[in-house]
Amino acid sequence: MTDGPFEVATGDEAPRSGTGREAAVRTAFEGLLNIRRVLDGPDASTPAQWERLQPVRAVSLALEAAGIAPSAVDAAGRRCATGYRVGAADRPSVARVEWLGPPGGGAAYTATESLQRCAEVLRRLGWVALEYRGPRRHHYLEVEPAG
């Protein structure tokens, strides 16, 4: 981890870990929940406007804060860790969550169960997470704010 502004782990970066990373994620997530409380009151059960405008960042932060590991890539751009990958979907305010890993690493076998865990975390935070199956039976979630 480098010193500088906090960046969420979407699953398309080099691996990030360590106590400093855990503290930074916790602080960022607590900040996100505080934004919800300030804007929406004590209920704060749905994503705030900031989250709606940046769903990839908000979803990535929620997953990492829940202890779900992101995927990662090495310097050559090859997958080197199994975990979530969050990217933009085809529609605004929608994120796409996939479960990816290195070739031959078994990510495809654990994708359904792992994506269900991701969906549970996101639903508790006011997101709608629907599972889809794409080409070659590749499972993924489309995640959007509830309401």
Written description of the protein model:
There is one protein chain. The chain is of the alpha+beta class. The chain has 4 helices and 6 strands; from the N terminus they run H-H-H-E-E-E-E-H-E-E. The strands form 2 sheets. A 4-stranded antiparallel beta sheet has the order 3-4-6-5, covered by helices on one side. Strands 1-2 form a two-stranded antiparallel sheet. The radius of gyration is 15 Å and the shape is globular. The protein starts with 18 loop residues before the first helix and ends with a strand. The mean pLDDT is 92.
In a nutshell, what does this entry contain?
This protein is α+β, with helices and mostly antiparallel strands. The protein has helices at 19-40, 49-53, 55-65, 107-124, and strands at 72-73, 79-81, 83-88, 95-100, 127-133, 139-145. A hairpin with a 5-residue loop joins β1 and β2 (79-81).
